Amino acid sequence: MESKRQQKVASLLQQELAAVFQRDLPHLFPSLPPGISLVRVSPDLGVARVYLSLLMAPSNTAAEQQLALVQDNLKAIRQALAKRVRQQLRIVPDLVFFLDDSAAYAAHMDKVFGDLHIPPAPSAEPEAGSDAEGTAPKRPKLFADEDE
């Protein structure tokens, strides 16, 4: 579990990195700049794991190319971030970028659940000769070889 300090630093880094990508270094990204879905900071505040959300990427290879572009310009990104957070943080953490695949995972799970075929439950109709008030309801058979 993250401490409050880790959460505050992660939130600050997420906001400032988004501003760096959109305002300070837009020339690095010919298409839409990547979004930042999550930032996790190590307990010593020395390493920040940044998860990039590339929802507008047309394919997986385009997302990987965008991630490679971010990693190639890591020094410029970290310097621009340092200018923005120099009043709040003593040391700018090392940045490690990852692709956030939660949207693809959610789409996959939605497809899996959509492909499931669940038969409807058998309807429980009372038998003609039994008294509905005096007897307990009959248990449905769950297995074919179950005795009555």
TrEMBL record:
Recorded superkingdom: Bacteria
A GO cellular-component term linked to this record: cytosol
InterPro entries in the record: KH_dom-like_a/b (IPR015946), RbfA (IPR000238), RbfA_dom_sf (IPR023799)
Compositional bias (Low complexity): 124-134
Predominant localisation class: cytoplasm
Swiss-Prot/TrEMBL keywords: Cytoplasm, Ribosome biogenesis
Protein's cellular compartments: Cytoplasm
Spans annotated as Disordered: 118-148
GO term, biological process aspect, one: maturation of SSU-rRNA
Glycoprotein recorded as keyword: no
One Gene Ontology molecular-function label: ribosomal small subunit binding
Pfam families for this protein: RBFA (PF02033)
Gene3D superfamilies assigned to the protein according to its UniProt record, in alphabetical order: 3.30.300.20
Cross-referenced HAMAP family: RbfA
Protein family according to the UniProt entry: Belongs to the RbfA family.
PANTHER family: RIBOSOME-BINDING FACTOR A, CHLOROPLASTIC-RELATED (PTHR33515)
Subunit structure: Monomer. Binds 30S ribosomal subunits, but not 50S ribosomal subunits or 70S ribosomes.
Function per UniProt: One of several proteins that assist in the late maturation steps of the functional core of the 30S ribosomal subunit. Associates with free 30S ribosomal subunits (but not with 30S subunits that are part of 70S ribosomes or polysomes). Required for efficient processing of 16S rRNA. May interact with the 5'-terminal helix region of 16S rRNA.
Name by which UniProt lists this protein: Ribosome-binding factor A
UniProt source species: Hymenobacter luteus
Gene: rbfA
